[in-house]
Amino acid sequence: VGQLKLEDGPGFPESELLPAIVKSSDDAIVGATTSGLITTWNPAAENIYGYRAAEIIGQPLTILCSAELAGEIGETLSKIGHGERVVHRETVRRRKDGTTFTVSVTASPIHDRDGRLIGVSAISRDITEQQARAAAELRRRADDLERANQSVESFTYSIAHDLRAPLRALGGYSSALMEDCADDLGEAGRGYAGRILAASQKMSALVDGLLVLSRIARAGMHLEWVDLGAEVARIAADLQGGEPERRVHFVVERPVQARADRALIRTVLQNLLENAWKFTSGQQDALIEFGTVPAGEAGVCCYLRDDGVGFEPAYAGKLFQPFQQLHPASDFPGTGIGLASIKQIVERHRGRAWAEAAVGEGATFYFTLDAEEIA
Amino acid sequence: MMTRSILLVEDNPDDEMLTLRALKKNNILNAITVAHDGAEALELVFATASGREPLPGLILLDLKLPKIDGLEVLRRLRADERTRIIPVVVLTGSKLEEDILAGYRGGANAYVRKPVNFAEFAEAVKTLGLFWLILNEPVPEFMAQPD
Question: What part of B 94-133 touches A (C-beta under 8 Å)?
């Protein structure tokens, strides 16, 4: 086999060449009548199915599969009757000894010289091994992923623990300096120590922010129906309770039902509302609105609008990156992690987050959620 | 009645010094013993437990320790009849460690997040009903000598 001389030497006449190719194939090549009676049976078919040609020719194709799959063969025959082919259909076949295996089958009509349908050819390949290889590959990738997750886990722990220890020393000793050695330090010295303290606190907050982000990325999702409007109303009441002297009018659409992880979506709403609350702090009478707009393809599209300081629209794209702050920290304190967490959470719900604004005209933050079918 | 001593288990010298400073600055004048790893802490406690000396009135326990880690120290303290009742306040370096600890059902009485400031420490002591620990008149020879 495999050494057929196609051009020179004594060679094969074409009439012998084709049968030789069929004979040499590793794939089972089976011919059948249009009604599905087996007419041709190559050596590979003998190997794969365990039937000798002599015992199977004349038998129906359905002998090669379980009773439940017989209909599938009927379906294939009827397709071929209509001149169609069936290409690389993955299905299960049965050997003579009753064992089953996975095959990929391609079935085509056979026409005579005049184009009349005279039969069916079915080429099937045992793909059990291929599938086992694919499954092994999948397992290997799952293991790799598991290992990668573990290393992220220990990296995160290291950030949380080891990076913080020297920060505590910086903060602790600079406060000690200011408290215990205030006189020796003098005013300038106290100022410097104060700056060291502030910087260590800032870095500590940044480390916390990174941990929050990494936690969100890895948090388990438990989807349920959540009334976002009710959540907004609750957070709004908390904010108002914390600063009762501020006059802020909340307009909240209710209910706004969405499939979401309650804890994560609360983080989104909390961050958005805290932002709106913060950036309207200069307003005599502030207005904060929560509602929905037509969602198009997505499950739901929500917005939170405020009439606060707004921002330069050119920077709208940068907003959602970690540690980006468009306003000086002295005006509006924060670590710049809130919007980055929003983006991450919304994306985990197969949604999108964006913002629209103009300086002095408030800001509107939109997000979509489309988590209906996430397992 | 004599004030009970406090055992601080802390391997980081900066955290040790800052914790001792915070306690001293707030007039907590109990004797404070420092163990620098989990093994030393267990030796100290069990040596006291078998002798006549009173057990520490409170253990401040860091989680990440050389040799034997904090959770294991806690487990062994809780497994022994003589030491299971000693109040243990776990010092955590981060929220993450608090989570790890929460998953561990091994009976810390309270957590204080580092750096240990007096307000948090006082809160933990209050939670544990240990006012007596810090309110009793100190006996001079048991006073802490941190530096």
Answer: 94-97, 100, 114-115
| Gap between the Cα atoms of B8 and B17, Å rounded | 11
Give the Cα separation of B19 and B28 in Å (integer). Answer: 11
Answer whether A171 sits within 8 Å of B115, measured CB to CB: yes
B21 contacts A176? CB cut-off 8 A: yes
Mean pLDDT of A124-140: 92
Q: Among A161, A179, A201, A204, pick the best mutation site for testing chain B contact (most B Cβ within 10 A).
A: A161
Specify the residue for token string 């998953």: B103
CA distance A314 to A332: 20
User: B53-96, pLDDT tens digit by residue?
Assistant: 778 888 999 888 888 988 889 989 989 988 888 888 888 876 66
Query: What percent of chain A is helix, strand and coil (3-state, nearest 5)?
Result: 45, 20, 30
DSSP H or E stretch at residue B98 = helix B95-102
Q: Count the Cβ atoms, other than its own, within 10 Å of residue A95.
A: 14
What is the C-alpha to C-alpha distance for residues A299 and A368, in angstroms, rounded to an integer? 7
* Alpha helix stretches (DSSP H) within chain A: 14-24, 43-49, 53-56, 70-81, 128-158, 164-180, 182-218, 228-242, 262-279, 338-348
Chain A residues touching residue B114 (CB < 8 angstroms)? 164, 168
- Residues from A contacting B (CB-CB < 8 Å) are 156-157, 160-161, 164-166, 168-169, 171-173, 176, 179, 208, 211
